[in-house]
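Ticket opened by: R.M.
Priority: normal
Category: complex prediction / small molecule

The reporter submitted a protein together with fe (ii) ion and asked that the result be attached to this ticket for the collaborator who will pick it up next week. Submitted input follows.
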Amino acid sequence: MKIVASPAINTIQKGDMMNMNNLFSFQTSKRIIAGNGSLKQFNEQLPSLGNVSRALIVTSGTFKENGSLDLFTGQLSEAGVEFESFIDIQPEPTVEHIEDVFKRMAGKKFDLLIGLGGGSVLDATKLLSVMSTNDIPLKDMVGTDKVKQKGIPMVLIPTTSGTGSEVTPNAIVTFPEEELKIGVVSRHLLPDLVILDPTLTLTLPPRITAATGMDAFVHSFESFISNKANPISDMFALESMRLISRSIIKAYEEGSDLQARHDMLLGSTYGGMALTAAGTAAVHALAYPLGGKFNIPHGEANSMLLPHVTLFNLDHIEERMAIVARELGMVEGDTVPVSEAAQVLINKIQEWTERLNIPQKLEKFGIKEEDVPALATAASKVTRLLNNNPKKMTIEDMEAIYRRLLK
Ligand SMILES: NC(=O)c1ccc[n+]([C@@H]2O[C@H](COP(=O)([O-])OP(=O)(O)OC[C@H]3O[C@@H](n4cnc5c(N)ncnc54)[C@H](O)[C@@H]3O)[C@@H](O)[C@H]2O)c1
Ligand SMILES: [Fe+2]
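Result attached by the on-call engineer:
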């Protein structure tokens, strides 16, 4: 499939005046330490986290199996910190799963929560932290600013290079009855310490490297074209896309390439910063029902939707796309017509998804024509993100996009 942009008229502008008059703000995690082997610096950071005597490590079985958890708990023992590990966090956690895990914390006085894992583990850790100090059920925390109190101090250690959850005020929960994923958004979800150690991502299998890497790219791309894009989000988004575009194929094809892993991890964290400042948009809104109802991995859903939503938005975002194409070195100079540069970017994204072997059709996941209206209805409820989309999208537009993806 080839997606074609409209004919060329304008040339790329050096900069643009988008949102010059908009107010913007930015908030991120308190402290970030980064670099190969930075996990080993954890004990030096402990004093900045208060009086820690009993920690809970929230993680998944993968890290018990590959030895990372034991290495880390060895360090905690050296520092004289007592700990317990919950190693059963499920991917893309449901509200019931988080509530069950929370029940197991009852009566145990943890003064630090450490999330070691992908976005699913990090989001679970963030929610467990605020559930411990706020007397409100998880269901009532859904939405923006419903969490009243700061939670138990948190350290987040990402091991995929995708969500950027370690620097976002968001945690995503699956609600199986509504067949949807919904966000809890609160500044209290930002952690006290983030450790970005690319060596932890070396074990990430190719399929997950591809999906999470494309998720990170979509965070930055959508932030760059968001109605709320601003100078801070632009800076993180462009640098994130630059890092990811130069390394995503390498990280997928040669998982042991530490430089590529480094780029991807940093690129995904910058993507989280970009989305915190500007918000994602329709790609994410349409991806949520695919995850909530059909369990399509978040990054794969985003990758499938990206070219089609981009084509829908094209007449509103061509100039911004041309800036991305130029900044990423996909076109040279300022004389290339805007629509030609935008087309180069669309082609490049398609080329990546093919090389990364990301499925392109919903039929592979058992989705049929009769599922389309319910998917579009569910997506239309994600107004938090649809409001950021540069072009208004109706339910009929959403149905048309899902239909294009069917076969
Ligand atoms: N909070 C946010 O800002 C935000 C943003 C986007 C997405 N999300 C959410 O994050 C979740 C997805 O997170 P994800 O894409 O990082 O995937 P994930 O956390 O679900 O992990 C995917 C799989 O990879 C495995 N894995 C993780 N790290 C590994 C490693 N280093 N080596 C080997 N295996 C490893 C996990 O065990 C799991 O089986 C979704 O629920 C999504 O909605 C959150
Ligand atoms: Fe995402």
